[in-house]
Input
Amino acid sequence: MRPAAPRNPLALVIGTARSYTPYNPMKMKPRTITLILAALLAACALAQTPSATPVLKIDAAKPGPAVGLRYGLMTEEINFSYDGGLYAELVRNRAFKEDAKEPVHWSLVQLGGAAASMSLDPAQPLNAAVATSLKLTITQAGGKQRAGIANEGFWGIPVRPATRYRASFYAKASPEFKGPITLELVSTEDDTVHASAVIPEISGDWKRYEAVLTTTAESAPSAKNRLVLSAAANGTIWFSMVSLFPPTFNDRPNGNRPDIMRILADFKPAFLRFPGGNYLEGNTIETRFDWKKTIGDIAQRPGHMNDAWRYWSSDGMGLLEFLLWCEDLHMQPVLGVYAGYSLRQQRVKPGADLEPYVKDALDEIEYVTGSADTVWGARRAADGHAAPFQLEYVEIGNEDQFDREQGSYEGRFGQFFDAIKARYPAIKIISSTRASSRVPDVLDEHYYRRSEDEMASHSHDYDARPRTGPKVFVGEWATRVGAPTPNMSAALGDAAWMTNMERNSDLVIMSAYAPLFVNVNPGGMQWPTDLIGYSALSSYGSPAYYAQQMFNNYRGDVILPVTADGIPTRTWQMPAPGPRPGTPPPGAPAAGTSPPAQEVPTVSATRVPGGGMRYTTSFQQVPTIFWSATRDTKTGTVFLKIVNRAATPQPLRVEFSGLAAIDAKGQAVTLSASSPTDTNSIADPTKIVPVTSTVDGLGTSFTRTFPPYSLTVLQIGCK
Ligand code: AHR
Output
């Protein structure tokens, strides 16, 4: 049973605020619309805030369904999420494949009058996957004359005091060059050497060399450093796969940055949706996420051009690394499989043409879940993880509503669905858009909103959604206000949206914000408004991150029905359709210019003579207060979440029924700001964080005033 929700709660609630009549501009003549808009504007001026204290009535005697919603992470290689982000590798362009002509991010070192040259040398490949190398020819060196190569890292190389860095590289040398090679972490500000190690000899055949560089206790934290490999002898040396790792989370080789992992761990995510997003699809079939090329020894991974987001991917974060990331944070993997559609409208025909891609998906599932006596399970064991991973959900493709060929997804989805269900009947299938030939277990819906009010205006949508279709995974959503990371206004829009998901968590069973990460350095961001920001040295959670953390970490296990009266509103005009603030990948459909199929816009469009469209957008009254109530059936505690989007303190009366006793004292966790544009940043990472305080005066009915621009979770002890 669902909680007692009105059929159209938004209209009902706003109806009590005196000013709103639901209407559909699509069905009206332009003159009628103009008159109504004028009347609405006049009425709105009078009706911003009702004078009586708004009331929430919570009926604990009639608990609704269980809170089924799980918060997880959605991730892909965007905004330098892995390379230059979570994946801890510090060397940029380690395999020299980012650019076919130049060793980008590398520079030549010639110290004390030494002379040398460097260039890419495809004639001396490391192997078939890394089919090039960097050739360094030293013509004048000896004593203080040193020549070599230096890597700038991803916007610098972070150095911390007394820290161990694991370096490795492949090299071979001409007969006259014997070594040694010195590795150093050197300041780009004053040439201070923070750490060094020596490889005494380089052989004439490709060989892997390793060294540990330990920084001095005096090395102050700084990203203004580079990695230098140099020699004081003449000769030629070829380098490949030059790598440097700082300490990683759980000390995993080829692992993740601990600071970012700790931010994720504090959120307690239930699952990880990977590997995308547009990154899964690629602009072309060729540049999709081809999982078989992302496993095993990093020196055997070719990497690929992430043309969806326009930079090179080392594929150091490959299929097994995603799974280990899940293991480290106790998350369930939600595996997105490539489904034969890429962004530039390249698609594979269902039937025989699609079969190899279906087989790839089945192999991928076997790599994840198969025991070590299956072909791909054995491969996973050889890659270092003998135990199979649990896999409950597989998603077929990503945003296939953008495939412009009629019926294409139906055909492709059906073929994947049948093959996966036949081999793995327990796996639940998520469709990336609506499909009717097979019934998906779950439907993935994406909602990117351009303002707080726009997100808030949709924050009762699920109250009225019929429960007859599949369960919903809101697999990407965000209020896109603030860059690189969302500000408090965005967090308030998000909080309103999360009340919608939580209240309706019999239907909405999974949620993942997107994008998750951004490297805040210039050039690091392809898509503005990302949950967690970082530089080479530090990282922080945005206000939107903390709002989600509060929603996830403070809730009961059943939904309590709430009716509301006197909820204040403010006027909002929906903007005309336009591109998302993010830059769509070149050649991709202009994502966001039309709403996803499942949305009904309150906008009318008329074709104008001579071409083009005229849009009439509607005015709406959008509530400034949102709420959700849940109860922990074991302890009795009620978690009441209140979002006050207004600029003024908001008194609110809360009336409980169906409870034997209520503690007068409780706890409030509050996220608030003095301005909606306030935000967190590298410079001020904790400007806006949740604050816990004790509250009193609680009871069967009480009035409490909520601060401006705030999200509050009241924890109320009840019997
Ligand atoms: O999150 C950014 C992009 O938005 C994703 O890659 C894609 O799925 C969506 O269009």
